[in-house]
Amino acid sequence: MITVHAYLHALPEHREAYLDGLRALQAATLEHDTGCLAYRFWEALDEPNTFICVEAWADIAALNAHLDAPHHTEIAAHLDPYRAAPADVQVFESTPISL
């Protein structure tokens, strides 16, 4: 399994437009991307307008297909004017375990 943590930063004055874009990206990803196991956004408690997308993918091919998908490239381009900083994306190979 592939896990992604994408740290995203919205300009405060464009917060609502940024959130609308994140919602659209989440909906399109969950609807269209085979191999997507999870795709959720969360906001940092101590950094307003900072979000993390936690993603889980069946394999690297599924993640790469998502990154190349028209809905991803189009929505990402739409979000660019609302970003306060470039995304910090971390990708991991992971194995679920029980605690």
TrEMBL record:
Alphabetized UniProt keyword annotations: Monooxygenase, Oxidoreductase
Pfam assignment, any one: ABM
MF (Gene Ontology): monooxygenase activity
UniProt domain ABM: residue ranges: 2-92
Keyword Oxidoreductase assigned: yes
Protein name per the record: Quinol monooxygenase YgiN
Source species of the chain: Glycomyces harbinensis
